Each structure stands twice: as structure tokens, then as C-alpha cells.
Amino acid sequence: MIRRPTASIRAREIPCAEALLLMTLVGVTLSGCAALSGTDSAVEGRERVDTTTAEYAAIEVPKDVDYRARDLQDAPIELVPIIDFVFMARGVGNVFLIKTDEGNVIYDTGVSWQAEQQRDLLLAVGHEKTTHVIVSHAHGDHNGGLDAWKAALGEGAELIAHERYEYTNKIYGDTDEYLWRVRTGTLYPSHSAGQVATFRGYEPSLTVDVHEDYFFEVGGVRFQAIAAENSAEGEDALLLWMPDHEIVFTGDFYGCLYPMVPNLYTVRGEKTRDPIGYVRALDRLIDLEPEAILPAHFDPIEGKSYLRKSLQVMRDGVQYVYDETILGMNAGRSVYELMETIRLPAELEISQGHGKVSWNVRAIWEFLAGWFYYEDVADLYAVPAKSIYTDLVDLAGGAGPVVERAQEHFDSGEGLKALRLLDVVKEAGKESVSALRLRLAILEGMLDRSIATHDNMSESGILRALVGRTRDAIAVSTH
Ligand SMILES: [Zn+2]
User: Fold this and answer.
1) What's the CATH code of the domain at 185?
2) In angstroms, what CA-CA distances link 388 with 320, 323, 366, 401, 429?
3) Centre of ligand 1 from the C-alpha of residue 251, in Å
4) 111-135 pLDDT per residue, tens
């Protein structure tokens, strides 16, 4: 028996009459879906699942989810039985144990500071021997607990990862110091900054190639490890499929919410994720036709029809944004225009709580064409625009008139323009308390708006951090 997720909207088989009513209520029409399937795809060589069926139209996919990525911090560490021989130890990152007559298969290891507790919960119901430890990818909330399985690995348990795992583990490790000091520490202050990343030191004993699934059997239970071409959380996602039970362990394959717009660009800093690879990887997951997905964050999700539809929506949403970005680029529109204007059509709208459409537009642009926009040639050289901000303040006759103009922008609803002007003053070293107070008002408004709309984890996180820093700066200046 698979537990249903706590989120309110889940898989439902909807009878015909109810389906028609629902289609009316949510504004999903057969013609709308047909239009979608008729869109020429910029990604070639991929078979589209038929989205014109009544079944596709009838299944409701929520536009948002009623939980947030930051809720992971409060996830209790507890044992959750999934079926009679599959168990989950919940935490920031879930850890799974599949108990067979010959030993345990472990999928993912959680974060370093919870891993031993999770391991003990699982081993209390598991076999005394562990034969396999599988890591879904090289993010610290998934491989961070490898130390907890050191004894099992020392006794010969296989450590299985994606063929790109060692590469991604290396580049994450190379930038750990920068990311923690500048970015991760800002976005996720509750994580234990400065942790010693000993988990990066484990070498897989077996890696799985992208187009060669690894089939194995333990105690009569059949497994298939599938290395994705790409995923929403990096290029080294390793899925674990149990074909006889139609269960797939996904790690962070699509991201931490379900369903969600993928996080092609991480504000915390990482390689841009390949949108085409993501679309193909989603196809692979759809082709499995899983009855249940066991993700490494939050709750299991079940229901074949619901999973099929929601995975299609995730895939088609990325495809749509990709296609629109290409169209815009080729039509000579600027990246900023496209960030402003590309929106998901109603039938593809899902949570932007982790990934964000406008940032994905820019990520796709830069993934394809790089960071130089052919607008300001000085951008090719190490003299940033802000190097002349002091000159601008001098020319304006001091910071006063600039802050006044910023206030006018703010009063007329142009908060971001106001913020740009305040950045000029700040860079010139002339940020007064009144400028700081205006900055605080702008940032607080942005944070409120962010929370009231998608409550995107990265956007809200960085705004929350900047509100705090601005308040601190005001306190220092007024004492
Ligand atoms: Zn994760």
C-alpha cells in the first residue's frame, strides 16, 4: 500500500460526465489540447504522446502545489512503509530500503546530518546485509549520507551511480567553497554551512551509461538502473525501476516538487541544465508507465494515469518555453523581452516554486547562444557598467537627486527601476539611510509579491536574505 501524498490534488480516475464538467471548470478543452499537440517541435526525433484523448483532457494537474521546497527543513525523520518490503526514511532527503532475501538495496543517502538516524530506522526493519547502495546524483542532499553506509560499502556492497556522477561530483566539489560563501549560504542559511564534504570522496564501484540500462536481481527482486540523459537537477540522474511492481525511484529527477517547472537555472550556481535532454529524459520516464514514483523529497506519488498526464505537462511545458525562446531569438527579440512575455499556456501551467519560466527562458537563451547579447560591446571586457556609477552620481550633483528619482519610480510602481538607481548610489559609496529605507521598502514589496505568486524558493530566498541585510545596514547606520 503506497501512502498518498499530503498535497491535496492527486491521481484520480474521472468518469466521463464528471470529466466534461471538470474540463469546463478548469478551462481545459479538447481543442486546446489538440492545438498543443499540433505545435511544431523544435526538438526533432521525438515521438509525441497523443494529447488529444479525452483521458488526457480529463485528468486534473494542479497549477500549483500546496507545499514549498523550504518545508523540507521541517520534514520529520520517520520511517514510512511503502509496500511490505520497501521502506522510506523521510528527511530533508528521503532514503529508501528495498529488503530482499539476500540483502538490502539502498536508494539515496540523504543529508549528512540526518543520515545515521535514517540508516538506523531502515536497518531496524531491513536485512542485516546491504548489497547495493545507489546514489541518485551528486547533490549533497542525496549523496551527503554516504558516510553512514561506509561499513556496508567496506563489506562489499556495490556503490552504483550514473556515468556522469564522478564528473558532476568533482565540479560541485571544485566550487563548494565559493557556493557556500556567496550563494548557498544566502539561499539556504539553515543548512549546516561549512560542513566537511567527506561524502564526495566515495568512488562508485559501478557506473551506468546513458543508453545502457543496468539490470540486476537481488533475492528474486528485479531492478533496472536507468541513467537519464539529463534531468531537472543535473546531468547525472540515476533512476531505479522495479518492473514487477511498476515503482520508480526518481531521486531529484524532475526537482523537489511535483509537478513543477524544472529548475534549468539555479540561482545558487550550477551549470545550466540542458532543456532538450530534460525533455528526452521525461519521455523515458513516461515510457516506463509507472504506477508510483518514489521521489527523494516529500511524498510518494501514485496513479498511472495521473503520473502520465502530469509528466507530459512537465515535459510539454519545457518544450513550449524552448520553442517560444527559439522563435523569439530568430525573430530578433531581446532576451529581456522574452523573459517578460513568454508565459505557459493555461493547460501547461504548473508550480514555479522551484524552477521559474522567465529564468528558464534566459537559461535556454544562454545555453544555446552564450552570455554576450550583442547589445553593449563593453560587456566583452572587464569593465562593468557599474564602473561609471560614481561618475553618474557626480554628474547628478550628488546622491540626493538620484534617490529622489528612485522614489518617483517607486511611487509610480516601477520598483525595479528604482532599485537600479539605488544600486548606482550604493556603488558610488553614497547610500544614505533614506536610500536604504527606500531599498528596504522595494525589497519588502518584491518579497511579498514573490510569496503571493509562485513563492519560488530561490527568488523568495534571496529577497528574504536581502531584506535582512538591508535592515541590518539601517540598524548600523542609525546607531
Ligand atoms: Zn535534492
Assistant:
1) 3.60.15.30
2) 40, 38, 26, 17, 12
3) 7
4) 999 999 999 999 999 999 999 999 9
